[in-house]
Amino acid sequence: MCAASTAERDITAAVSTFTLPDSTCRATETPASAAEQPLNVSQAFASLYLSWLAARDASRSTARDARPLKTSSASVYQQMWKAFANYCLANRLHLSTLTEADINRFLQTRPARGGGEAAAVLSARYQWRFLVLIDRLLRLDAEQRGTAPNLAAHALLQRPPHRRANAVEQDEAPRFLSASDTHRLIEYLEQSIADGKQAASWRRARDAAAVTVMLGGGLTPAEVRRLRLADVIRDKQEGGLPTSLHIPSADASRAGRRTPLPEWAGRILLAWLRQRAGHGIDGEQAFPATRTGKVWSHTGCQQACGAVLQRAGLADEKAGLFQLRHAFAIRHLAAGTPEHLVAAWLGYRDADSVMQYRGLAVVEGETTDGAPPKQL
Questions:
Q1: Which residues contact 109 (CB under 8 A, 6 or more apart)?
Q2: Burial class (CB in 10 A: 0-12, 13-18, 19+), 144
Q3: What average pLDDT does the chain have?
């Protein structure tokens, strides 16, 4: 249950309790463009946090990094921001001109949680939490001022020891296909559709096309099963080649989304749709379970598409089919696609939801030898 509104009242009452240096130590050494900043800088730090909290409270997202905060979480973030605010004001630092070195010094001077000599410095994961909070509030500060955001905290998040610190210590990083495995799978899918023997098995063609839209369009297995023929958007100028998909939402209160398809994926999907029509398969489902058009079951889809990966020599039981969706996101981010577009294509309501991919996209971009032979 969300209680962010209660937390907001608590923090409003606590604004005056921020333990800050006197006015002679406030962040007065700021650029000339910051001349209009509020006189009470401590109030400004607290107000910025309140604005962020209010935005979270108003969010309709269910993503962990965007949904409304519980009272306990808001209290923890309040104390974290209060500590950082005290540090900035004591050292005459302004949010717009903070450097990576400034933030690093703050992290290194923070006592570890629980104390003790064995944990004299904050853990990498707790430093990561500080950096994420600072990055979000720096971006909000810039948005409110109408200026370019200070990306010092974001830059630190992209490099060791902070990159993937949360994933390493709490959850495993998303498993995804490497660039070489992605190209290998695409070649297999194209060959399987071109193979004359495939025509004798419409299910094999269906399975290959289903894997194609997961990798080429970022669909989940559930979205593949819900996809209808009417959801395939074609280019009439290119012989009906599918160029994008309309993804129906599982939530009736939410509109669906549209995600693009690369040309290679469009060709494979078109080949399957032609086979589907040639076999006289009934129903409106793009990927039916039977000739009568029965909806594909969860288990049937998982087993059939998993078999495609096995035949391509890419079976990984732990990774499952979601490695295809992860590969879609990571490769687009590594290629420079804006985060808000990738988030929208994946069905997320805000760009922060792709945060789990940021560090991985950097690694993938650094290790790719040249441009990929096929656009994802």
A1: 87
A2: exposed
A3: 79
According to DSSP, residue 121 is labeled: B
Query: What is the rounded CA–CA span in Å between residue 42 and residue 27?
Result: 9
pTM tops 0.85, yes or no: no
Identify the CA nearest to 19 among candidates 84, 86, 95, 78: 86
Q: Nearest-CA neighbor of 201 among 311, 298, 108?
A: 311
Residue type, 250: A
d(CA 206, CA 287): 6
What was the pLDDT predicted at 335?
Answer: 87
Burial 71-104 (b: 16+ CB within 10 A, else e): beebeebbebbbbbbbbbbeeebbbbebeeeebe
Of 74, 85, 69, the closest CA to residue 11 belongs to: 74
- Which H/E stretch holds residue 247? strand 241-247
In the chain, how long is the greatest CA-to-CA distance?
82
Q: How confident is the model at residue 280 (pLDDT cuts 50, 70, 90)?
A: very high
Sheet strands (E) in 115-235: 232-235
Residue 376 has pLDDT above 90, yes or no: no
Cis previous bond, 161, omega within 30: yes
